[in-house]
């Protein structure tokens, strides 16, 4: 797919899935706005990788859970690149995926849910609002939100995290309905457990083996596996798809 | 393959010089042979048609209606060989999408069925029998309407089938008709004439379909000299060139290029109605790529609805992009692409100067929408799916903005509640608008419409009156006079 | 970059013998970034196209500004009131609105003109006796052509060079005397002017049944076409008349293609064959594009000319003309104005409407 002359904003792109998505876009010629929260060095190294891969990139610091910061991020990216064609909402609040030590439902406060909802939904909400005037101006655009396959199959009940991502899917479908008539598509990619990432670094081999055992394609997802469907949903190849959730988990969830 | 255009009674095909016009892409060319007549030949054809017109005047109008109805019925039958030819060739000649042409032909030909034709007659004649015989007049005496001996039609443009409209008008008033087809669509009129002739050989000599290359030619001069009435379509330059060459006694009916536009009330702009409104507006733009006199160039959209004019322009943009998949735009010539580019560039330049203006759509794409909140006059678009949406505080404010252009105005597509519709209609009528339709119907005038506000049939006829005095005087010398 | 830096870079660039594609690219992108930063309407124009200096990788990525924009936008990196000189288009369209080019200094314009004029019109000698068929700079202070011709006279004309057009037009008697003198002395002579200025001259010569046989090394220079200011002649007819009228071979009749919206000119190598191949120096590059998509048309196909003239640094360097052209070996052919077409249907087209509205307003 040729993404030359396309501008892509990826949130939470200094590492893990976000970094993989950014680099994959760049490898197809895209210009990527690499958003990060704290780790400037990591973000700069993603930027360097993007350029080496044949695209262009710049790093943009912003706490995307803050609406004003999200708006400023979009403005800065447009200032540098002239437009935004694709928005990938990948950022979420740090979460430790630890089956043994996870909080049980009765340990969880509403604040835990709120934190995750802010991380996944509030940031997406703020960015979608911020990027909309630009996309409407061109009567086209693609928004891709990163969810999780746990919504369909909570193998391990990470209540707060998964509930927030479930809300994100509902949010995306409503937005798809609203924006379809003005030419903007909204879809989700729902990965299974992705290894290695910050969140899954400490996941036990045993757990990974268990999941691999149940996965038809017999391995865990890598960041690059997630990037493929994201690029597809950003491309004209998916021009007649909106409001969809693509599961990227080796067939663990089928629907 | 080669298709012959035209219909020439009174001359043998082998005596005619045929010229080739090539259409379509190089790998799928379509050659059309068009007839070129010498001055003498044109005069022979004119004599034949004039005689045919005399015979036509002896047939009852109902019979002519019946013949046209049967001819239209054949062309509405998708299995008919000519209809199949039309569906194959017209898209290749004009570049318009095949499906758009198919639907357009059916919608158009339906307006030539018997009930529609009778409505058409009733629009202009309180008593259509006045075309058949002398009818008593309220003031006393009798009158009969006669069509011209030779009605010349100079057609223009590439919208398929359009010439049939005036040809049918000419037949209904029992004129002898000679029509000149445009090079951009030389076929349909000839096919229609052929089918009419086959339907009833009695009328086979009442019309001829000819061609010449635009400009001053022998055959044009000959026809303009022979015609009693000339009906011409085209740009003002072409129309005045014809006028300058007509004998002063010849009746001349000129249909110049026109500009049409749309008005959308805030009442049609809530979140439920807006997609439908945008869809209908887009359809008017897409149909024949804005080549019609009834095609919209600007939509004036009222502020204050749930959906703003700017938002409406975005809905419209997406509808155009969806229509592009269904009915792709015709491939543009270099000059047409230049016109679209010039229009778009001009809007981009204005928008760079600041102000509330958006240019939507890819430069390389097949449509462009411009939104502006400036108090803009009506101006033509770049054609070929380029449209401007202008926000206004009240639709009535549009009237003064169109006033300077009254001689170029034609149709207004309106989405507004009843009270507003009638109020606007009064304002618009004063400014020279002659037709008001729903959005989505701008390019499909209903049967019997008054083209440019004129009487299509009445404009063609002359009245012959038997005054009361002649009646009484005749009585005095009647064999039965006392 | 500051204005001074840009000017210095450009003067160096122009003074160099030639430039590689990558050197041209580098400077073109720097000039683009300078204009993007310092010229707000131009920045708006680029943003609308979704283009910034960051995403422009070659000079071909720089949005070409249609020359109409020179009429409607103030395109200047320096405050317009600080411009040392403003050149305006002569066009009378658009209710008298003229396209403006603001020059904070003429140093770059002059260097561009002098360097290239020397190479294309005066490669064989330093100075020549000139007659100029155009008003001087004091009569037309906003004419880029008046300035251009003044430069030609100042830098390449002998002391005997002079303007042959006064307030009342061409002084035919004086000019014919001058030409006769050149014939007699054998000193080469150059007649320079707007193409349309030559037409009344040729007509007058015909009326008086005059022809000249100017000395070997004489040359003719015309520019700008006829623009409705004189009778339109075909190019072949025009150069045949010049050649027979003055005894200068068509190959020594040079046509310059320039415009107010540029600071660099194109020349041909004589008009033995028309249309002649035009080309420019190493600080300007041209493309032939589809005006709608902005893409290059395939080689050999007709499109619209777009130029990237680094010397036009204060305004915009990359412009889209209204001239049709085609790329050929060694340059491009100029095919006249890219004109619109009447609508194919009964819908009104912009040109026709403007014309009709004009008639309605005045009639």
Q: Catalogue the unreliable spans of chain C.
A: none
Helix count of chain C?
Answer: 10
What is the overall shape of chain A?
globular
Number of beta strands of chain A = 7
What does this structure look like?
The complex is a heterotrimer of chains A (255), B (482) and C (363). Chain A is an alpha/beta fold and 255 residues long. Chain A is 44% helix and 15% strand. Chain A has a seven-stranded parallel beta sheet with strand order 3-2-1-4-5-6-7, sandwiched between helices. In chain A, helix 1 crosses helix 7. The mean pLDDT of chain A is 94. By secondary structure, chain B is α/β, with parallel strands linked by helices. Chain B has helices at residues 39-56, 61-76, 81-94, 98-109, 114-124, 164-172, 188-199, 218-226, 236-244, 274-286, 309-326, 334-352, 398-402, 418-430, 468-476, and strands spanning 2-4, 17-23, 30-36, 135-136, 142-146, 150-154, 176-180, 207-210, 229-234, 251-256, 259-264, 296-302, 357-360, 368-372, 386-392, 409-415, 435-438, 462-466. In chain B, helix 1 runs parallel beside helix 8 (218-226) and helix 10 (274-286) crosses helix 11 (309-326). Chain B is globular and about 85 Å long. Chain C has helices at residues 3-15, 21-38, 40-48, 69-72, 107-121, 144-156, 172-185, 195-207, 235-246, 350-362; strands spanning 65-66, 85-88, 100-103, 129-133, 162-163, 165-166, 169-170, 189-194, 219-223, 253-257, 266-267, 277-278, 284-289, 303-309, 318-328, 331-337. Classes of the chains: A alpha/beta (255), B alpha/beta (482), C alpha/beta (363). Chains in contact: A-B, A-C, B-C. Chains B and C meet through helix 12 of B and helix 3 and helix 10 of C.
Layout of strands and helices, then pairs:
The complex is a heterotrimer of chains A (about 260), B (about 475) and C (about 375).
Chain A: E1 7-10, H1 16-27, E2 31-36, H2 40-52, E3 56-61, H3 67-81, E4 86-89, H4 110-138, E5 141-146, H5 159-179, E6 184-191, H6 205-214, H7 223-234, E7 245-248
Parallel strand pairs in A: 1-2, 1-4, 2-3, 4-5, 5-6, 6-7
Helix pairs in contact in A: 1-2, 1-7, 3-4, 4-5
Chain B: E1 2-4, E2 17-23, E3 30-36, H1 39-56, H2 61-76, H3 81-94, H4 98-109, H5 114-124, E4 135-136, E5 142-146, E6 150-154, H6 164-172, E7 176-180, H7 188-199, E8 207-210, H8 218-226, E9 229-234, H9 236-244, E10 251-256, E11 259-264, H10 274-286, E12 296-302, H11 309-326, H12 334-352, E13 357-360, E14 368-372, E15 386-392, H13 398-402, E16 409-415, H14 418-430, E17 435-438, E18 462-466, H15 468-476
Parallel strand pairs in B: 1-3, 6-7, 6-9, 7-8, 9-10, 11-12, 11-16, 12-15, 14-15, 16-17
Antiparallel strand pairs in B: 2-3, 4-5, 5-18, 13-14
Chain C: H1 3-15, H2 21-38, H3 40-48, E1 65-66, H4 69-72, E2 85-88, E3 100-103, H5 107-121, E4 129-133, H6 144-156, E5 162-163, E6 165-166, E7 169-170, H7 172-185, E8 189-194, H8 195-207, E9 219-223, H9 235-246, E10 253-257, E11 266-267, E12 277-278, E13 284-289, E14 303-309, E15 318-328, E16 331-337, H10 350-362
Parallel strand pairs in C: 1-15, 4-5, 4-8, 8-9, 9-10
Antiparallel strand pairs in C: 2-3, 6-7, 10-11, 12-16, 13-14, 14-15, 15-16
Helix pairs in contact in C: 1-5, 2-3, 5-6, 8-9
């Amino acid at each position: 797919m040729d993404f030359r002359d396309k501008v892509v904003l990826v949130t939470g792109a200094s590492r893990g899935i976000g970094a993989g998505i950014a680099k994959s876009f760049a490898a197809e010629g895209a210009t990527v706005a690499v958003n990060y929260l704290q780790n400037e060095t990591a973000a700069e190294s993603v930027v360097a990788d993007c350029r080496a891969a044949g695209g262009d990139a710049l790093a943009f610091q912003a706490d995307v859970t803050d609406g004003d910061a999200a708006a400023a991020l979009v403005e800065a990216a447009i200032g540098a690149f002239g437009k935004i064609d694709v928005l990938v909402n990948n950022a979420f609040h740090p979460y430790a995926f630890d089956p043994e030590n996870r909080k049980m439902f009765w340990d969880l406060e509403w604040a835990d849910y709120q934190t995750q909802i802010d991380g996944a939904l509030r940031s997406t909400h703020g960015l979608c609002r911020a990027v909309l005037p630009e996309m409407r101006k061109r009567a086209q655009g693609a928004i891709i939100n990163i969810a999780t396959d746990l919504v369909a199959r909570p193998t391990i009940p990470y209540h707060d995290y998964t509930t927030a991502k479930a809300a994100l899917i509902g949010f995306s479908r409503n937005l798809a309905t609203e924006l379809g008539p003005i030419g903007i598509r909204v879809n989700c990619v729902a990965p299974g457990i992705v290894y290695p990432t910050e969140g899954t670094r400490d996941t036990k081999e045993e757990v990974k083996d268990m999941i691999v055992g149940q996965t038809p394609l017999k391995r865990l997802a890598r960041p690059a596996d997630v990037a493929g469907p994201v690029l597809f949903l950003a491309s004209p190849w998916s021009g007649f798809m909106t409001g969809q959730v693509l599961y990227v988990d080796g067939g663990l969830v089928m629907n | 393959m080669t298709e012959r255009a035209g219909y020439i009674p009174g001359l043998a095909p082998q005596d005619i010089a045929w010229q080739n016009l090539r259409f379509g892409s190089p790998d799928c060319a379509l050659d059309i042979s068009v007839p070129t007549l010498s001055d003498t030949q044109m005069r022979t054809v004119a004599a034949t048609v004039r005689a045919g017109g005399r015979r036509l005047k002896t047939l009852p109008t109902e019979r002519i209606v019946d013949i046209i109805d049967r001819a239209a019925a054949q062309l509405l039958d998708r299995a008919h060989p000519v209809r199949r030819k039309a569906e194959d060739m017209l898209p290749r000649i004009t570049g318009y999408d095949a499906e758009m042409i198919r639907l357009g032909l059916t919608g158009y030909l339906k307006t030539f069925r018997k009930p529609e034709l009778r409505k058409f007659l009733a629009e202009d004649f309180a008593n259509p029998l006045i075309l058949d015989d002398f009818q008593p007049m309220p003031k006393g005496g009798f009158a009969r309407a006669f069509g011209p001996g030779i009605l010349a039609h100079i057609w223009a443009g590439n919208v398929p089938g359009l010439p049939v409209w005036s040809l049918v008008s000419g037949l209904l008033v029992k004129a002898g008709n000679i029509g000149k087809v445009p090079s951009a669509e030389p076929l349909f009129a000839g096919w229609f004439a052929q089918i009419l002739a086959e339907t009833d050989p009695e009328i086979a000599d009442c019309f001829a379909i000819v061609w010449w290359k635009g400009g001053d030619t022998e055959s044009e001069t000959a026809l303009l000299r022979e015609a009693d009435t000339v009906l011409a379509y085209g740009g003002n330059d072409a129309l005045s060139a014809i006028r300058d060459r007509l004998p002063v006694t010849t009746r001349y009916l000129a249909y110049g290029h026109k500009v049409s536009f749309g008005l959308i009330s805030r009442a049609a702009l809530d979140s439920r109605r807006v997609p439908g409104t945008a869809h209908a507006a887009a359809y008017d733009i897409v149909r024949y790529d804005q080549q019609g006199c009834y095609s919209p160039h600007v939509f004036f959209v009222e502020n204050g609805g749930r959906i703003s004019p700017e938002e409406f322009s975005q809905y419209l943009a997406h509808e155009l992009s969806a229509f592009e998949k269904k009915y792709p735009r015709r491939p543009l010539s270099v000059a047409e692409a230049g016109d679209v580019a010039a229009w778009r560039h001009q809007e981009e330049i204005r928008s760079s100067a600041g102000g509330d203006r958006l240019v939507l759509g890819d430069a390389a794409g097949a449509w462009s929408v411009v939104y502006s909140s400036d108090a803009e006059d009506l101006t033509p678009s770049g054609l070929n799916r380029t449209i401007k949406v202008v926000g206004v505080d009240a639709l009535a404010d549009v009237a003064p903005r169109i006033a300077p252009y009254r001689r170029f105005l034609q149709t207004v597509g309106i989405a507004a509640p009843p009270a507003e519709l009638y109020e606007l209609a009064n304002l618009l009528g004063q400014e020279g608008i002659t037709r008001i339709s729903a959005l989505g119907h701008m390019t499909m005038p209903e049967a019997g419409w008054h083209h440019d506000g004129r009487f299509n049939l009445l404009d063609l006829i002359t009245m012959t009156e038997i005054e009361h005095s002649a009646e009484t005087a005749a009585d005095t010398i009647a064999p039965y006079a006392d | 970059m500051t204005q001074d830096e840009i000017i210095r870079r450009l003067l160096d660039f122009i003074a160099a013998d030639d430039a590689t594609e990558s050197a041209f690219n580098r400077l073109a992108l720097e000039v683009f970034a300078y204009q993007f930063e310092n010229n707000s309407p131009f920045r708006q124009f680029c943003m609308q196209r979704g283009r910034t200096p960051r995403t422009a990788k070659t000079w071909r990525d720089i949005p070409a500004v249609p020359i109409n924009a020179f009429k409607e936008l103030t395109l200047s990196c320096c405050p317009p009131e600080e411009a040392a000189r403003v050149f305006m288009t002569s066009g009378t369209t658009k209710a008298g609105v003229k396209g403006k080019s603001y020059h904070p200094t003429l140093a770059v314009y002059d260097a561009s003109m002098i360097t290239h004029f020397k190479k294309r019109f005066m490669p064989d000698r330093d100075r020549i006796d000139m007659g100029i068929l155009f008003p001087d700079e004091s009569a037309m202070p906003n004419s880029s052509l008046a300035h251009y011709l003044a430069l030609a006279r100042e830098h390449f004309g002998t002391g005997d060079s002079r303007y042959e057009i006064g307030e009342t037009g061409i002084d035919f008697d004086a000019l014919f005397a001058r030409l006769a003198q050149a014939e007699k002395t054998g000193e080469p002579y150059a007649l320079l002017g707007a193409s349309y200025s030559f037409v009344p001259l040729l007509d007058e010569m015909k009326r008086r049944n005059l022809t000249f046989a100017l000395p070997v090394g004489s040359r003719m220079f015309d520019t700008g076409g006829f623009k409705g200011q004189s009778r339109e002649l075909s190019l072949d007819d025009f150069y045949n008349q010049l050649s027979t009228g003055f005894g200068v071979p068509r190959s020594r009749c040079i046509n310059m293609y320039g415009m107010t919206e540029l600071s660099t000119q194109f020349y041909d190598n004589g008009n033995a064959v028309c249309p002649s191949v035009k080309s420019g120096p190493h600080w300007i590059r041209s493309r032939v594009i589809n005006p709608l998509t902005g893409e290059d048309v395939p080689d050999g196909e007709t499109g619209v000319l777009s130029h990237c003239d680094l010397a036009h640094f204060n305004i915009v360097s990359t412009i889209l003309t209204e001239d049709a052209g085609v790329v050929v070996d060694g340059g491009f052919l100029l095919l006249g104005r890219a004109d619109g077409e009447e609508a194919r249907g009964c819908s009104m087209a912009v040109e026709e409407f403007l014309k009709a509205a004009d008639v309605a307003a005045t009639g």
